[in-house]
Amino acid sequence: MHLPDWKTGLAAKHCRLAMAVTSAALVLAGCASLEPRYADPSPVLPPVWPGQQANSAPHGASSWDELVLDERLRQVIGLALENNDDLAISALRVERARQLYQIKQAGSLPDMSVEIAGSRARTYGAAGSSLASTAVATVGFTSYELDLFGKVRSLKRAALETFLASQQTQRQVRNIIVGDTIKRYLTLAADQELLGLAQSTLDTRAESLKVLSARLRAGEASPLDYRRAEAELAQAHDDLLAARSQVELDRQALDLTVGSPVHDAQLPVQGHLADILSLEGVAVGLPSEVLLSRPDIQSSEHALVAANANIGAARAAMFPSIGLTAAGGRASADLGNLVTEGARYWSLAPTAALPIFDFGRRRAEAKAAEIDRDIAVRSYQLSVKEAFQQVADALTVEEVALERISAANWRQESSGEALRIVDRQFSAGISAYIDVLDAHRTANEASRGLILSMVSRDLNRVTLFVALGNGV
After folding, report:
1. What is the pLDDT of residue 256?
2. Which one, of 27, 104, 112, 29, lies nearest residue 326 by Cα?
3. Domain 1-31+110-146+320-354 = CATH 2.20.200.10
4. pLDDT tens figures, 421-444
5. CB contact at 8 A, 32 and 146
């Protein structure tokens, strides 16, 4: 069936009008926004860290790969990243945020649909029966909201910023996992050094007791010196048991952090505590602005931008909501002739909903969104200030740690020389055994102090790495 020319022209004219109205609506949908203008809320920070000069050039390690030298530790870090449940959960949250953003992004576009329907019916009457069939094919979109006031756009922006925030949170979780793993490994390495020191002390005490036992039988030593040597040997044995217990606890803690048992071939090598991390330490001389690149700071800022976008969406909800439904297609009495001979038709159905009285709900939602934004601003500023304080504290500890290691080295050298002098004098019968015991205790404490000072410095370097946002 063919329509008259004037009807065909009228239909085409109406179709062009509908397309023009739809195109104009789509253009207008992107012209308005009720979001407040975003202003950088970063607090004013000193340009450099306390104790550093403004023109000092950055030096030292700036990534985990540069800081960690021990290949065994690198393998353990890889296991921790592979097995950690927190990181797996963080990755799932990133993917969820990605899908939510896809939903919001799709919501800014009309849902296109195709519908094909057909029917066949037979009717009976006095003149007989007749068979009628119809076929309809429709293409269009339904319930498309014209974003005249930026509501959909604001929700899409908020979803995007939430997704970006989740990515930065994942980076921060990864950074923390690496830092915790290194700290556990360093603690185990230090306690292994202390265990070796305890074993050496026990061997020394046992040898001293043998010497005094021989001297006592020869009448060259007093029973008091012998009993003192026995007491020192018992104390050394107790210290050794405590050191072994601590090493075992450290290993269990490392296994828990990694998420699986760490093989012996991946444990620290005794006597190589100083070789685990780079001697250059952490990159210093960096401007304080580097904190703004920290993953948690970046996540906080993305959350702030999302809160700002939510204000626009809440404000837009107080204005009319305009929807549009449009369709076009062909209808024919025969499905086979639907494309070639079907009658064309179109429809355009705009709708508008204007909030009149909602007991102040929308206004309260807009105000709540503004309060959420203010909270996000304060949280962001607080995060930046706390990050600066963390770095400043770690740098102070770093400076003191280097001085402590220098003093501990000096003490170890002096006490070691004093011990050698007393041993020679005791062998010559010049010094008493009590002097030997005092010299041994001093040398032992000096060695212990050097180990603790070294691991304290390394642990602080890891803390400084995390505080600076390095390693990812």
Report:
1. 93
2. 112
3. yes
4. 998 988 888 888 888 889 999 999
5. no
